[in-house]
Amino acid sequence: xxxxxxxxxxxxxxxxxxxxxxxxxxxxxxxxxxxxxxxxxxxxxxxxxxxxxxxxxxxxxxxxxxxxxxxxxxxxxxxxxxxxxxxxxxxxxxxxxxxxxxxxxxxxxxxxxxxxxxxxxxxxxxxxxxxxxxxxxxxxxxxxxxxxxxxxxxxxxxxxxxxxxxxxxxxxxxxxxxxxxxxxxxxxxxxxxxxxxxxxxxxxxxxxxxxxxxxxxxxxxxxxxxxxxxxxxxxxxxxxxxxxxxxxxxxxxxxxxxxxxxxxxxxxxxxxxxxxxxxxxxxxxxxxxxxxxxxxxxxxxxxxxxxxxx
Length: 310
What we know:
Blueprint: H1 2-19, H2 21-39, E1 50-51, H3 57-60, E2 62-63, H4 67-73, H5 78-109, H6 113-124, H7 131-142, H8 148-155, H9 170-195, H10 199-207, H11 212-223, H12 225-236, H13 244-250, H14 256-259, H15 262-272, H16 276-304
Antiparallel strand pairs: 1-2
Helix pairs in contact: 4-16, 5-9, 5-12, 6-9, 12-16, 15-16
């Protein structure tokens, strides 16, 4: 009896796999991708605890324990890097998520098809431009000598500002340009959530005399609340990723004090100075902090709300 009971589930499993073989075939590529490029390289993370030498290799390098972590924590720039990284990440989160929600609601409520398609195309397009191209556009707009923004400022009676080398203006440029580039793309998730709302809820609200603002406040936003919570929690997990590509293109020596983040520092230390062990240690530090933030915030949200990530 026991042998028959154990063999029956195996046969059923085999039949289910054969029945849905096309679905399982689609999983092959992503599974191989994550195994080869995400999980296997974790083994090489041991160089964070070693004095890594390319000649000795990963396994032959000398073990030094937590020295790389200690060197990073005791670095003169540690607190400055942490402040800049967290500041930009939280700032982008506080700007991009509300703007994405507002944009998604406006596009969802828009009844003019041509206008909606034009706006969608315009707000999606910057996402597909690299930061190299965005930097060229920003130079045209923000250049101190003949930039469009400075021309407007002087026309209004103000003084020209060198935005990209001004320590007060640079953080504002970073936050606004990130919102400009990614806001439209991030809104897609919320638009998809809005499309799943039962239209009868809006019809019933209109019959009761609810205004457009009231429908958004009492129906639209509560309906997409789980999606908002999920997006915020996932972004909290990357709070130590402040956008290397953007910062690398925009920053310069005069604004290092407000522009240098963990990733740019790791780039200089790990790649330019060949300190691979130190760079790996910082990567592990970022991963652990991200995991702790997601776990803690998820538990807090689960206690105060019915929405959570897990």
